[in-house]
Amino acid sequence: MSAQTLNAPPVISVAHALPDLISAVKPRRGVVGFLRRHPTVGLGGALLLLMLLVALLAPYLGTVDPTALAPARRTRAPSADFWFGTDMLGRDIYSRVLYGARVSLTVGFSVAALASAVGLGIGLISGFMRWVDFILQRVMDGVMSIPPILLAIALMALTRGSVGSVIAAITIPEIPRVSRLVRSVVLSLREQPFVDAAIVAGTRTPTIILRHILPNTLAPMTVQATYICASAMILEAILSFIGAGIPPTIPSWGNIMAEGRALWQVKPFIVFFPALFLSVTVLAVNLLGDGLRDVLDPRLSKNP
Amino acid sequence: MLAYAVRRIVATIPVMGVVAFFVFSLLYIAPGDPAAVIAGDQATPADVERIRQSLGLDRPFLVRFGEWVWQILHGDLGTSIFTNLPVSTMIAQRFEPTLSLMAITLCFAISVAIPMGVLAAWKAGTWIDRLIMAFAVFGFSVPVFVVGYLLAYIFALELEWLPVQGYTPLSHGLWPWFANLILPAVALGFVYIALIARITRASMLEVLQQDYIRTARAKGIGQRDILFVHALKNASVPIVTVIGIGVALLIGGAVVTESVFAIPGLGRLTIDAILRRDYPLIQGLVLLFSFVYVLVNLGIDILYTLLDPRIRY
Lengths: 304, 313
Fold this sequence. Notes:
The structure holds two protein chains of two kinds. In chain A, 64% of the residues lie in helices and 0% in strands. Chain A is mainly α. The two termini of chain A are 42 Å apart. By secondary structure, chain B is mainly α. Chain B has helices at 2-29, 34-39, 45-55, 61-73, 87-93, 95-122, 127-141, 144-158, 174-208, 211-218, 223-234, 236-260, 266-275, 279-307. The longest helix of chain B has 35 residues, at 174-208.
């Protein structure tokens, strides 16, 4: 917009436009620009998307029935027919690994969503109701004092193994971390002038929570949820690996590795492929989490 | 100092109480009949009834909880369903390997991670920093048993430098004991190193921007003394905190590592306990590990006042 087009009254003098001494720095906008500035989000997101596609399209990617037994061709090394080889019951490892992606991603996403939802609820209550807070925080202290893997193991010992019980057993140890985070955000927001203003204006507490507090917890919660997703996938694999997780009839990365355990010195490929997929997937989620933290909380980006 | 220490010690009692209550009540809040689940699918009704009685599930919750806590305070963790041995005896038999593994891992991880974090902070923004941070993300992403198998495959099977699996008690000599624990300790330390290195870097970056670091530099103090004497000491509180929190990772990781390397320790005992659904043993182990974890963090809380005399609660 040039100065001449302004309909300024004659008494106001309008400055001339500055000459273009410095060429304008134009940060690239849109998706491409965003990804260029935050390569970890791009890399992590792309890898995770790839895994999601693998999980969804598992039946169409040249797989066979992942549970089909074929004792005649046990523990074959990787070849053109069996890309990742076969396990000790003759099942195709390539198919099992691809179907295994479904279990890992389901567990990871479900735990992240459930732990966030429950933790958010507890955190909001803690932040707003002081007398409940005292009791809740003591309970959270207790739960946090039990190492997560052990708590999950103790929970799994009491239930019949299923995908649902694994999700529950991994979610419970993660809840205190979310609730602590939400609680601390709520406590610091409560001191902010805009919350005081809302209270003075007569806004009811539920509305304050919904309109003023909740939106501000979303950014740190999203970052936390990605990390929970990553650690949940590792925990699921660990539980299945030690025989306390997903029932052995369902192919999951942890289960494939558990079955390959006895033979790993002679047939390392049985353990290798699920381990590779698991590591890459968890790496993708962690990269996404690190990237999101830099995007959503620029204050932290300097010292990750 | 002493009053603070006493206050911190007293404050851990309710935490342990909550842990005990939680571990105990799991039996009651579990869906279905825990006695039937623990007994397994092949159990007869008589077996289920026997387990129900031995767990005290036939008596009121609070009465049973009171008795249980009373027993624990007297050092009695109950009796294993599977072996009929006292849980405390079973734990005592398996204590040494786990303690050895954790001690070596802790020493190894701290002595590798802190220099790594300091180096990354010093060279912040350069390729060295990026390499170390990339390693840290990697460390968080690869599960401990994958690292374990990889190390065992390379250093034990291919190169044959170290034993593949197993454990030799310390009484059989220092080197055989140590050689068996090198690979497990490195595998277990992997994620711990990533955690400590990251926090060390972040904490050091903050301290290195302080005025007194500039003053130290202006006085002509060498780079190494600035980093390790002036900066690291002031950066130590978050680092020590994360070392304490990370002990939970170490305990969980030990369960898996012992299974990969066939070490007959408490982790292996935990896995056996869960596969046999030996609930009194699981309760005892969870309680013991939580107690150790709380104790470590209590020690660290008290250590703060030594590291940073400004901290007074």
